[in-house]
Amino acid sequence: MDVREKIVVVTGGADGIGAALCRRFARAGAAVVVVADRNGEGAAAVAAEIGGEAVTLDVSDGEATAAMVADIERRHGGIDLFCCNAGVGDGDPDRNSATSSPDAVWHRAWNVNVMAHVHAARAVIPGMAARGGGYILNTVSAAGLLSQIGGAVYSTTKHAAVGFAESLSITHGDQGIKVSILCPQGVDTAMLRAGGSGSPQSLDGVLTPDEVAESVISGLAAERFLILPHPEVLTYMQRKTADYDRWIGGMRRLRARVMAPAGS
Q1: Domain map of the chain by residue range?
Q2: How far apart are CA 165 and CA 120, in angstroms?
Q3: Does 154 participate in catalysis according to the annotation?
Q4: Is residue 251 helix, strand or coil?
């Protein structure tokens, strides 16, 4: 996809990867970039910067998502590219227990990291199919392809997001609806910084949000399902599928290393 003259929506667009995507799409000549975020003031600031539109949106609210899509379609005739970028990431409270997160954390992550993608697809697919095509880009994470040490909730919900995106592509590809998933490792965002230095997702280097947005532009142009700003992720995936048990063993060793006390 070439985003020139396209109608684009980006959720989680007030900062981080989402804001970088909005700026990059605007520079690429998108006709309209809709910046959607729970942080309405942040969305408005990004929209003002790029000459876009701002919407205050809680992506876990399916009715609100449907209403936003209907309004954009009414005013602009359709949505060409919908980017489900909003996400939440919570670490395990007890790093020695994958079950330590309370139910409320699981529910919030499920609603934002998975169901928000379902809500968006429900809202945009009918119009895209009627117009003969469209594009859905879901920001997931390398954690959805591999795993995340110390983040059972994040890893599990991101795996589910990958599975849903696969189903979208398989089911609706023949309707002209293309799907890509964005799966970076470490990116210099508030979410990564909250995890502290030395987090395992940073081991292959930390990219800027702008660098990730550039990967998205090239990935959309090639219409690749997997957009991997960190190319190492493909190698790790291949190792995982080639010998799952060996990969699990390697992840255990990595966990032991990253969780070892400083200086040990």
Answers
A1: 7-233
A2: 12
A3: yes
A4: helix
d(CA 56, CA 247): 42
Burial class (CB in 10 A: 0-12, 13-18, 19+), 130: exposed
Helical (H) or strand (E) element with 10 = strand 7-11
pLDDT one-digit tens code per residue, 165-222: 999 999 999 999 999 999 999 999 776 666 544 566 667 789 999 999 999 999 999 9
Q: Are 10 and 21 spatial neighbours (Cβ–Cβ below 8 Å)? A: yes
**164 three-state secondary structure:** helix
CB 141 within 8 A of CB 16: no
pTM: 0.94
CA 10/CA 92 separation, integer angstroms: 28
Annotated active-site residue in 135, 154, 236, 244: 154
68-84: burial string, b at 16+ Cβ within 10 Å, e else: bbeebbeeeebbbbbbb
Report the CATH fold assignment for 7-233: Rossmann fold (3.40.50)
DSSP 8-state secondary structure symbol assigned to residue 77: S
Sign of dihedral through CA atoms 76, 77, 83, 87? positive
- Sheet with 81-84, strands from edge to edge, namely 53-56, 32-37, 7-11, 81-84, 134-139, 177-182, 226-227
Residues 41, 116 contacting (CB under 8 angstroms): no
Helix (H) or strand (E) holding 139: strand 134-139
Give dist(CA 202, CA 205) in Å, integer: 5
3-state secondary structure of 58: coil
Chain segment 113-132, per-residue pLDDT in tens: 999 999 999 999 999 999 99
